[in-house]
Design brief:
Layout: H1 5-19, E1 21-23, H2 24-31, H3 35-47, E2 52-54, E3 57-59
Antiparallel strand pairs: 1-3, 2-3
Length: 66
């Protein structure tokens, strides 16, 4: 069964919150999606201010707390 975008976004946010900083390629592997899909998800969440995006990785914003 395929996971929907909202559920995947929740999992992605949880992974980043737990680890602080995660490489996009690692997120893709953990989520079972392509790097392109993981990057698209990261961009969507970062545009909403939920994540901080850097080259090749993503981190939990300091102002969001643990």
């Amino acid at each position: 069964m395929r996971e929907g975008g909202a559920e995947r976004h929740d999992r992605l946010l949880n992974l980043v919150r737990e680890r602080g900083t995660v490489r996009v390629s690692d997120l893709a592997g953990r989520l079972g999606v392509s790097v392109v899909t993981a990057r698209r998800d990261v961009e969507a969440l970062a545009s909403r201010g939920l994540l901080e995006r850097t080259h090749g990785s993503v981190s939990w914003p300091a102002d969001r707390g643990p």
